[in-house]
Amino acid sequence: MSRVTITETKIILPTYELGMDYKEPAFCEYGAGNWSIYPYTFQENLTGKRKEVSYRALVLENKYLRISVLPELGGRVRSVFDKIKNREIFYDPGVIKPGLLALRGAWICGGIEFNSTHPGHSVTTISPVLCRKEYGRSRASITVGDIEQNYGTEWSVRITLYRDKPFFETEINLHNPNPYPVPCYFWTNTALPFSDSLQVFFPSTRIKILSRIHNYPIHGGIDMSWIRNYLTPSDIFAHNIERDWFVVYDHLSQAGLVHIADRRKCRGRKIFTFGRADESRMWPELLSDNHTTYIEMQSGMLETQSETGLILPGRKICWKERWYPFHSAPRKVIREALDYYIKHKKLSRKSIFTPGPDTSAKTGKETEKDLLSKGIEEYKFGNNGNALKFFEMAGEKNPDSAKPFIWSGIIYYRMGFIQKAKGMFGRALKKEPGNKEALHYLKIPGKNQQKNKIEFLWDRTGGLCISDFSASSNFYLELALRRMNCGKYREAEDILLEYLHRNRGNVNPMVYYYLGFCTQDLCMALKYYNLAGKLSQDYVFPHRTEEIEILKKVLEYNPCDCKVRYYLGNLLYYKGRTDEAIKEWIKSVEMGNNYPVLYRNLGFAYWKVKNELRLAQKYYEKAISLDPYSVKAYLELCEVYRQSKDYNKAFRMFRNMPEEMRNNEHLIKQLAALYITTNQPQKAIDLLSKKKFQFIREGERTVTHLLQRAQFSRLLMESK
Question: Fewer CB within 10 Å of terminal CB in the chain, N or C?
Answer without folding.
Answer: C
